[in-house]
Design brief:
Keywords: Cell inner membrane, Cell membrane, Membrane, Transport. This protein is 38% helix and 15% strand. It contains 18 helices and 14 strands. Strands 2-1-3-11-4 form a 5-stranded mixed β-sheet, sandwiched between helices. A 5-stranded mixed β-sheet has the order 8-7-9-6-10, sandwiched between helices. A two-stranded antiparallel ribbon has the order 5-14. Helix 7 links the parallel strand 7 and strand 8. The protein starts with 26 loop residues before the first strand and ends in a 19-residue tail after the last helix.
């Protein structure tokens, strides 16, 4: 997808791009997956924010996170839309093709949800007498009841889809399941399904549920094949979602390009946060070159307006997507360490002081501050305690102190039995 910025920001008067030759070409090639949380990258290209900074952002739509990872590593991409845990995994040497990767910018928060098949949800309603307005924890406990019944009857385990082993979706799905008393390693089967395929896989009965980013949850609910049972905000509102990823040596050799790119993305994120722009943004995202989903669905998910199922049950989640407000773009190292804690919890890696340091190095607030200035960064601790602020709690009430990471992991009643041994984890690439 070669973006030419033919659709400009409504009412904008863009200055003539600055011509700079010190770092060579100002074309930045970026890979992305068709999800609404790629909005900031797409808006920066389509509405002139990159051009304003003297850059041409060349966006390439890809089909899987493993492809994006490999094409960034092999220098087919300069930067990439990437799952927030992927740079952490890369710095820990995890996965089939680990290559050092950093992020100086978060592309926002929110956007994920957990959807179960209508057949499974009906069984949960019967088992637990679920009310229409039941919350995420009630749904998880109802699913635990169904799984117990299935085990007693000798039925095969449920198959649940997520996007990648080192993904927010994997960790959030596991967190939700475990909070309800379900062991994700022994009581269900987790498999990788590319986001655009999740609705079809659910309809075909290949999977019984999935955790994925917008708009694919609502695509399934609108089709009448799925019921949304939890959103990212229910599990942990501040959880990082997608990030801008790049190779460390690329960033080091092009400091001015990196700074200009972050300035462009920061401006685009501000624009994406404004509800008045959601109509224009939804139209661009609905284009087959971007996401290729119905424009009405995209407009609704940008506003946090959900059709939970095909029976008229609805839910509005305020700030379902946050692209800029509350320092959503800031790459906070404590978030990287929470991701590391989940890798430990689920047996993908063993705890070590060296691992903590490597995980924290994946998130680069220094590059963010260099580009956007100290005033653009939060004044609190980069290694702050998470989950102890109003409106920002974990669904099970736990609090994460990155300085007590190992202690945090060990307090959970459901954790991987592999916690004490080094494991690269499953690699479903």
């Amino acid at each position: 997808m070669n973006v030419t910025t033919e659709r400009k920001m409504s009412g904008s008067n863009l200055p003539t791009p600055t011509i700079i030759g010190a770092e060579g070409s100002r074309v930045v090639r970026a890979g992305f997956i068709p999800l609404v949380d790629a909005s900031v990258l797409i808006a920066a290209a389509e509405f002139g924010f990159a051009e304003r900074e003297g850059l041409r952002l060349d966006l390439v739509r890809d089909v899987s996170w493993a492809n994006v990872r490999d094409r960034l590593a092999f220098r087919q991409f300069d930067v990439a839309h990437m799952l927030s845990p992927m740079p952490v995994a890369s710095m820990l040497g995890l996965g089939s093709n680990p290559s050092p990767t950093i992020t100086p910018f978060s592309l926002g928060r929110g956007g994920n949800a957990i959807t179960l098949s209508t057949r499974l949800f009906a069984r949960m309603q019967s088992a637990a007498s679920l009310a229409d307005g039941a919350g995420a924890m009630a749904h998880a406990r109802a699913l635990a009841q169904v799984i117990a019944e299935m085990k007693a009857a000798g039925e095969a385990p449920l198959t649940l889809g997520m996007t990648y082993p080192f993904s927010s979706h994997n960790y959030e799905f596991r967190y939700w399941l475990a909070a309800g008393g379900i062991d994700p390693d022994t009581e269900v089967r987790l498999v990788v399904v590319p986001p655009p395929m999740t609705s079809d896989a659910l309809a075909a009965g290949a999977i019984d549920g999935f955790c994925v980013g917008a708009p694919w949850n609502m695509v399934a609910s609108e089709r009448g094949v799925g019921r949304i049972v939890a959103a990212k905000q229910d599990i942990w509102p501040s959880a990082p979602e997608k990030v801008l990823a790049m190779r460390p040596e690329w960033a080091e050799s092009r400091p001015e390009t990196v700074s200009r790119l972050l300035v462009a993305l920061d401006a685009a994120a501000r624009w994406c946060d404004d509800p008045e722009n959601h109509g224009d943004l939804a139209a661009v995202l609905a284009d087959p070159r971007s996401i290729g989903a119905p424009v009405d669905i995209i407009r609704h998910v940008l506003s946090g307006e959900f059709s939970l199922d095909a029976h008229g049950n609805r839910r509005v989640i305020e700030k379902y997507f946050t692209f800029h407000a509350q320092y959503a773009g800031y790459p906070r190292p404590s978030h990287a360490l929470w991701i590391y804690s989940q890798m430990i919890r689920w047996g993908q890696v063993a705890y070590s002081e060296e691992g903590m340091a490597a995980a924290a190095r994946a998130y680069r607030p220094d590059l963010y501050r260099t580009a956007l200035g100290a005033d653009a960064a939060p004044i609190d601790d980069d290694f702050r305690i998470e989950g102890d602020r109003s409106g920002d709690s974990f669904m099970d009430g736990h609090v994460f102190d990155p300085r007590k990471l190992e202690e945090y992991v060990r307090q959970f009643p459901v954790a991987s039995p592999r916690i004490d041994r080094q494991s690269r984890g499953p690699d479903f690439d």
